[in-house]
Amino acid sequence: RGAAGGYMLNRPADQITLLDVVEALDGELDLVECVGKDFACEMKGSCATHVVWSDASAALQGALRKVDLRTLAGMEFHDCSDT
Description:
This protein has 3 helices and no strands. It is mostly helical.
């Protein structure tokens, strides 16, 4: 609804996570390209930071997977501009 349209959910809000939303809009969420499953890097087996980026990407995905749209809609707004 609204002047510019909008979106209708095809599942209940409590069955759609923030990770679902991000990946629907932007594709698979990885912090760096080389962590993505479709990316072949010649340094992948010997890169000192690959494991760190992989773990960080997994942590971000896990955090977004824990919050569904119903929970998000019920969260209290906090003004972060004072920090």
